[in-house]
Design a protein that fits this description.
The protein is built from 11 helices and 10 strands. With 379 residues, it is of the alpha+beta class. The longest helix is centred in the middle third of the chain and has 37 residues.
C-alpha cells in the first residue's frame, strides 16, 4: 500500500481544487443566501468528468476508483462543502444507474446524467424511517402500464430542484427484501414537493419533502429487479460515507488554512497570534487530527476499491472519525478567529454549519458505531 498520491491522483486533486477556487468559492455565500446552486454550474463540473466519477468508461464515465473520487470531494469542499456533497449524491445515483439499470433505462438516463444536463437526487429517508430505512412506507403498486408510487420522502437534497429522482418504494412485504428502486422524472403527474426546509447548514442545497400521490411511471423505470432496491441502496452507502468524510476533511482544511493566514496577520500583545506557543500547540493538534483522518479515509477507500472483506467496517469507521474531526477542527478555527470567526465575512462560521450535518447523514455516527461493534462481536 502506497501512502503517496500518484502523479495522476495529484493532478485530479489539483484540477478539482482549481475549479472550486475559481468557479465555486467566490459565489458560495451568494448561493447560500439564495438557497440554490445555479443549474449552469453542473455542466461545467461535468466537463471535467465529474458527472460520473466512478461510472465505467465503457458507458462514458470517468472510471475512477473510490480513492480517486475522495480526492475530488475533498478538493471541491475546500471551496464549498454543500456544493461538493450535492455532487456526491448525483454521482451515487449515476453509479446505481450504471450498475443496475436495464440497457434501455441506462441508455435513456445515463448520458444526460454524465453531462449533468439531468441532475439526480436520491429518495430513501422518510418522516418515520431515518436510521431504520428498511421500515419505509412508500409503496409502488403495479398498474396496467407500470407502477403508481405513493408516499413521502423527507430531507431530500435537491427536492423540487433536481430533474430526476431515484426513489426507494415497497413492492413486497415488510423489511428490506420488499423494497425496490424506481426512476421518476420531475413533472410526473402525482409528484410534488413540500416547502423549502430552513436548515442550519448546506443552505445552498434546496431541501424539501418529496411527495408521491399515485405518481405513475412506466414499468421500464424499475431500476434493476423488484425486491433488490434496499440491496442497491446499501451498496451505494459505503462509497457515500467515504465521500462525506472527504467533504469534512476538505472543509476543515479550508478552515485551518484560513486560520493560519489570519493568525499570521492578527497581532495581540505586540506579536502575531501564530507566535504564541499555546496557540501553536492548538494548530499542531488540528494538523495531526486532520492528517490522521485523511490517512484513515484513504485506507478505507483502498479497502473498498480492492474488495477487502472488512471494507464496510472501515468505511463506517472512517466516516465516523473524519466527520467528527472535521467539525472539531472547524469549531476550533472559529475560536481562534475570536469574534471575527462569528462573522459571515470570514467564512469560518459557514464551514462550521455545513460540516455539522455530516455526522447525521449517510448513516448517523451512532449507526457507524453499531456497524463496527457488530462486526467486532460477530453479530
Amino acid at each position: 500500500m502506497h501512502f503517496a498520491l500518484t502523479e495522476e491522483q495529484q493532478a485530479i486533486f489539483d484540477m478539482a481544487h482549481a475549479f472550486g477556487q475559481e468557479h465555486i468559492a467566490p459565489f458560495a455565500r451568494q448561493w447560500e443566501a439564495e438557497g440554490s446552486i445555479p443549474k449552469g454550474l453542473w455542466p461545467e463540473i461535468a466537463a471535467l468528468g465529474f458527472g460520473g466519477l466512478y461510472v465505467c468508461e465503457d458507458h462514458g464515465g470517468s472510471g475512477l476508483s473510490r480513492l480517486d473520487a475522495t480526492l475530488v470531494f475533498e478538493a471541491l469542499s475546500m471551496s464549498c462543502a454543500s456544493v461538493a456533497a450535492f455532487l456526491s449524491i448525483h454521482n451515487m445515483c449515476a453509479k446505481m444507474i450504471d450498475d443496475f439499470a436495464s440497457d434501455e433505462l441506462r441508455d435513456k438516463y445515463l448520458p444526460s446524467a454524465l453531462t449533468m444536463e439531468t441532475v439526480f437526487s436520491y429518495c430513501l429517508t422518510e418522516p418515520g424511517s431515518g436510521s431504520d430505512a428498511a421500515a419505509l412506507k412508500t409503496r409502488a403498486e403495479k398498474t396496467g402500464a407500470g407502477y403508481a408510487l405513493t408516499g413521502t420522502k423527507a430531507f431530500i437534497s435537491g427536492g423540487g430542484y433536481s430533474d430526476a429522482y431515484i426513489v426507494m418504494a415497497r413492492t413486497g412485504a415488510e423489511g428490506p427484501k420488499g423494497v425496490s428502486a424506481f426512476m421518476i422524472e420531475d413533472g410526473t403527474v402525482g409528484l410534488s414537493f413540500g416547502g423549502l426546509e430552513d436548515k442550519m447548514g448546506w443552505r445552498s442545497q434546496p431541501t424539501r419533502q418529496v411527495q408521491l400521490d399515485g405518481a405513475a411511471i412506466p414499468e421500464g423505470n424499475l431500476l434493476g429487479e423488484e425486491g433488490k432496491g434496499f440491496t442497491y441502496a446499501m451498496k451505494g452507502l459505503d462509497g457515500g460515507r467515504l465521500n462525506i468524510a472527504a467533504c469534512s476533511i476538505g472543509g476543515a482544511q479550508a478552515a485551518l488554512d484560513a486560520t493560519l493566514a489570519y493568525m499570521a496577520e492578527r497581532k495581540a500583545f505586540g506579536q502575531s497570534l501564530d507566535q504564541f506557543q499555546a496557540l501553536q500547540f492548538r494548530l499542531a493538534d488540528m494538523e495531526i487530527e486532520l492528517q490522521a483522518a485523511r490517512t484513515f479515509l484513504r485506507q478505507a477507500a483502498w479497502k473498498l476499491d480492492t474488495g477487502a472483506p472488512d471494507a464496510t467496517k472501515f468505511c463506517a469507521m472512517a466516516k465516523k472519525h473524519a466527520t467528527e474531526v472535521g467539525s472539531r477542527v472547524a469549531d476550533q478555527c472559529l475560536q481562534l478567529h475570536g469574534g471575527y470567526g462569528y462573522l459571515a465575512d470570514y467564512g469560518i462560521e459557514k464551514i462550521v454549519r455545513d460540516l455539522r450535518v455530516h455526522q447525521i447523514l449517510e448513516g448517523t455516527n451512532e449507526i457507524m458505531r453499531m456497524i463496527v461493534a457488530r462486526q467486532m462481536v460477530g453479530k
